[in-house]
Amino acid sequence: MPSPLNIRDIGQDRKAALEAEAKEKGTSISNLVRDWIDAGIAKARADRERAAWIASARQGIADEARHLDENGPTLARFRKL
What we know:
The chain is mainly alpha-helical.
């Protein structure tokens, strides 16, 4: 069984908002906050993976541009008329 989440000093407004949100969703505040934390972690992980993919793609594009500068366009050799 999960233990209760200990939230201190977040202010009465935030506590009231959490209570209202948990009540509306029919879950405990602890489970609600855990779900939000899990979603935040998953988003951060996905954002890092996306940034790594973009960096890798950017390097590949730079390699292609360098190859084009050094060798010129090479696609024509594969065309069949």
